[in-house]
Amino acid sequence: MTKYAFVIDQRKCIGCHACTVACKAEHDVPIGVYRTWVKYIEKGEFPNSRRYFLVNRCNHCDDAPCVAICPTKALYKRSDGIVDFDANRCIGCKSCMQACPYDALYIDPYSHTAAKCNYCAHRTEVGMEPACVVVCPVHAIVAGDMHDPHTEIARIIAREPVRVRKPEQGTKPNVYYVGAEEAAINPEVAVEELPHMTMWSTLLKPHYEDESAIDMGKSLRPLQTINSLKPYRPVEAV
User: What contacts 160, CB < 8 A, 6 or more positions away?
Assistant: First the structure.
C-alpha cells in the first residue's frame, strides 16, 4: 500500500527558504502564517560559529492527534498516508493546534479555518511532486512512496540513519531527517539549565548603589542615571 513521506537532508539545506516561498505561492498562504518553514540555530562563538537549519511542516503522522481531536472530522488520514483537511467542515475551534506537538497548524486569517501542509495532494494525485520538492535548489527535500523499494525516499531511509522529531509523543511521524543538528531536532538540548531556586540578584548585576542593602533589608536607592544628574535647560530659540 502506498505511504507518502518526506525525507529532508539537512546536510544539504542552505536555508534559502525557497520551500517556504513555493508553498505560499502554491497554496496562496497569507502573510504571517506558514505551511512549511525553516528555523535555524547558531552554535559556537565568532569566528568559530555556524548556523544549522531545520525544515518544519506537518509530519503526516500515522497516529495524528489532530485527526483524533477534531470534532467535525475536518482533518482526516488518507489511505496513502497524507493527513489532509476539509476547510468546509472546520469550525475554527483550534483543538488541532493544541493537539499537534509540531506546531504545524494555523488559522487562516481570512477563512478563519485551520490549514497546514497537505503534501500538495492536488499535485500528488496527478503524478507531480510537492512544490517544495520541485523548487529546492540543492535537492534537500525528497518525497515519495516509502513502501516502494524502488523510490529514492525508500532507498534513503534504508541507507541513512534517519531521525524524526519528538518520537516520544507516539505520533509515528513521517517526516524523516538526515544529518540534522541535535539541538535543532531536539530543542531541549539547547536549553541552559538554571538553578532550582533562582534569584534575580544572582543572574543580573546589581542595579543599586548599596549592594549590602540587599542582605541588610535596607530600603534600596536606585542608581542615578547620567541624565538625571544634568539639570534641565530649555533650548533657546535662535
Answer: 178
Distance CA 201, CA 198 (A): 9
Give every CB contact of residue 113 below 8 A, 6+ residues apart in sequence: 74, 87, 90, 91, 92, 107
Strands 4-9 and 106-107: unpaired
Q: List the grid coordinates of 151.
A: 523510490
Determine contact, residues 135/105, Cβ cutoff 8 Å.
no
| One CATH from 3.30.70.360, 3.40.50.2300, 3.30.70.20, 3.40.640.10 for 4-190 | 3.30.70.20
Q: Which residue has the cell 539537512?
A: 10
Neighbours of 53 (CB within 10 A): 20
34: left (phi over 0), alpha (psi -120 to 50) or beta: beta
Q: What are phi and psi of 91, to 5 degrees?
A: -110, 5
What type of residue is 87? A
| β-pair partners for 156 | none
Q: What is the pLDDT of residues 98-156, one digit of tens each?
A: 999 999 999 999 999 999 999 999 999 999 999 999 999 999 999 999 999 999 999 99
**What ranges do the domains of the chain cover?**
4-190, 200-229
Three-class secondary structure of residue 28 per DSSP:
coil
Q: Taking the model in full, what pTM does it have?
A: 0.77
